[in-house]
């Protein structure tokens, strides 16, 4: 199964990573890698996760994470890693 | 492993620069539907389309969710209907029944356009071809999703001037029947030279007779992405300019390749081709003319435009070919007037003319596209414009097309509104001198000397 890339973009506030990670832990989604950077005052985080053991289907996780993002004022997206691999690797 | 900056770059292309997959077009062969009974034929066509394309829209939406990239249109192309209906259709009215069936099937599976109400008459017209062509005004005015095209010339056969003459009249008749909506019917009709069998873009898509039973063709787009990339290299020389376009085209096409493979897998239908075209929309920042401006022109149409478009088209192909295992369709840059905001602006200030657009079509992927002309234009003049464009395609061994909209009741200076992706267009002036005697000669223009490659 392919890995999923979760991105979180928005103004930096307390507890962004905690909220997202708690959700992932609750749904048995394993985090493989986390990296973050600040671009033009915006908080950008990327997680590479493995959803193979996830208790919920991709679609549901995607919309629930988006909702969590809305609550804390950031944009959370879930995308299959292939779109990035295809574009940036030959 | 992928890093955060690469992820951000991709998502910026999607969110801010209008990168999208313009269309997943499912080509369906209707050859096995042929029947001499019109009712039976319509039943078989409806069944085959609705069965084959049942999951097309849902699969498109799933892919959109999975990769987070918009898949804007899901469409269908079918075998040219003049072949499919040849045995059953005794009159032009019978062909209109098939158009209605296509419309009903498109509605049922939820696609916004279905192409293939077409005839291939580059050397001659069969009785069925002529009946279909004569039915086009009625078919396009009574349906909203059916798209029609006629191939009137190829490099191998020459140009069928009888068909060119007839189509001038047909385009005017279509305009007249849809005059309440600024002659919108004509926006769904294309005249081709060297029409490709696997083009996924409307209105000219049809499923050629050389194709498999069903096939997935994908059209990618992203003029906004190219424009943004070029902003970074302002003032640099042509080598750097070309390199930047090529790299960007590669990235854009890779996304198309991914989507095409995934769609093919999920639908259980083989992958055909990726069409590399840069297709603009009226949205701000989704314009091919804007790329030309970024290359260094005040407006599209200024001196240098043809050269700028030539290099753009060539670099898009060079980058794209490496990114996909199969490329086809029209592949290049589209230069429709009404569907491109900066092109509309150029037309408004008279920076661009019909003649300059014709020159541009010599070096880009299609032809005179979505150009509104006065409704009072004579049929022979329209035929003359078509003949010019077909000659460019025939001699240069490339696809050319004409999609003109004579807007009934409107003259130069007024604006035609088509709505949605089709946009709006200022009416452009047409050369007023007559070509009646030329068009009325009849017959066909022989194939050019370089067609004899045996």
TrEMBL record, chain A:
PANTHER family: UPF0237 PROTEIN MJ1558 (PTHR34875). This is UPF0237 protein DWV06_11010. InterPro entries: ACT-like_dom_sf (IPR045865), ACT_dom (IPR002912), UPF0237/GcvR_regulator (IPR050990), UPF0237_ACT (IPR022986). It comes from the Bacteria. CDD domains: ACT_1ZPV. It holds the Pfam family ACT_6. Residues 5-83 form the ACT domain. Belongs to the UPF0237 family. It comes from Anaerosacchariphilus polymeriproducens.
Automatic annotation (TrEMBL), chain B:
InterPro entries: UPF0210 (IPR007841). It holds the Pfam family DUF711. Belongs to the UPF0210 family. Homodimer. PANTHER family: UPF0210 PROTEIN MJ1665 (PTHR37560:SF1), UPF0210 PROTEIN SPR0218 (PTHR37560). This is UPF0210 protein DWV06_11015.
């Amino acid at each position: 199964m392919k890995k999923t890339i979760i991105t979180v973009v928005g103004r930096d506030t307390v507890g962004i990573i905690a909220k997202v990670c708690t959700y992932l832990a609750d749904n048995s989604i394993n985090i493989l890698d986390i990296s973050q950077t600040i671009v033009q005052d915006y908080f950008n985080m990327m997680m590479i996760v493995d959803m193979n053991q996830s208790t919920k289907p991709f679609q549901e996780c995607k919309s629930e994470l988006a909702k969590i993002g809305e609550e804390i004022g950031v944009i959370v997206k879930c995308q299959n890693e292939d779109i990035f691999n295809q574009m940036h690797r030959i | 492993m992928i890093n955060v900056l690469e992820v951000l770059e991709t998502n910026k292309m999607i969110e801010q620069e209008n990168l999208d997959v313009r269309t997943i077009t499912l080509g369906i062969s209707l050859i096995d539907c042929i029947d001499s009974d019109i009712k039976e034929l319509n039943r078989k066509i409806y069944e085959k389309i609705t069965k084959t394309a049942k999951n097309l829209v849902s699969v498109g939406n799933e892919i959109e969710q999975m990769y987070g990239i918009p898949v804007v249109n899901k469409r269908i192309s079918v075998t040219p209907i003049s072949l499919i209906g040849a045995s059953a259709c005794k009159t032009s009215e019978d062909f209109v029944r098939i158009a209605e069936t296509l419309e009903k099937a498109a509605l049922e599976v939820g696609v916004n356009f279905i192409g293939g109400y077409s005839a291939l008459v580059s050397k001659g017209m069969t009785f069925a071809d002529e009946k279909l062509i004569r039915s086009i005004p009625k078919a396009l005015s009574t349906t909203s999703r059916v798209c029609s095209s006629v191939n009137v010339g190829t490099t191998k056969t020459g140009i069928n001037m009888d068909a060119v003459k007839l189509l001038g009249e047909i385009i005017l008749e279509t305009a007249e029947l849809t005059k309440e909506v600024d002659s919108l019917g004509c926006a769904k009709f294309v005249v081709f030279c060297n029409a490709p069998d696997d083009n996924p873009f409307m209105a000219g898509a049809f499923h050629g007779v050389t194709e498999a039973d069903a096939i997935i063709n994908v059209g990618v787009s992203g003029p906004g992405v190219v424009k943004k990339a070029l902003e970074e290299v302002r003032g640099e020389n042509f080598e750097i300019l070309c390199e930047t376009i090529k790299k960007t085209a590669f990235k854009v096409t890779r996304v198309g390749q991914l989507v095409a493979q995934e769609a093919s897998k999920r639908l259980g239908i083989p992958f055909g081709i990726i069409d590399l075209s840069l297709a603009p929309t009226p949205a701000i920042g989704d314009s091919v003319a804007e790329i030309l401006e970024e290359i260094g022109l005040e407006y599209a149409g200024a001196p240098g435009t043809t050269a700028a478009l030539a290099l753009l088209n060539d670099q898009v192909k060079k980058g794209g070919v490496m990114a996909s295992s199969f490329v086809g369709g029209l592949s290049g840059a589209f230069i429709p007037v009404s569907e491109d905001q900066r092109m509309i602006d150029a037309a408004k200030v008279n920076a661009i003319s019909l003649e300059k657009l014709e020159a541009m079509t010599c070096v880009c992927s299609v032809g005179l596209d979505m150009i509104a002309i006065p409704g009072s234009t004579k049929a022979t003049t329209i035929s003359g414009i078509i003949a010019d464009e077909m000659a460019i395609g025939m001699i240069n061994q490339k696809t050319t097309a004409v999609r003109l909209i004579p807007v009934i009741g409107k003259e130069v200076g007024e604006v035609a509104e088509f709505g949605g992706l089709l946009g709006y267009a200022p009416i452009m002036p047409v050369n007023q001198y007559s070509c009646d005697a030329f068009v009325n000669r009849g017959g066909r223009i022989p194939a050019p000397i370089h067609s004899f490659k045996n």
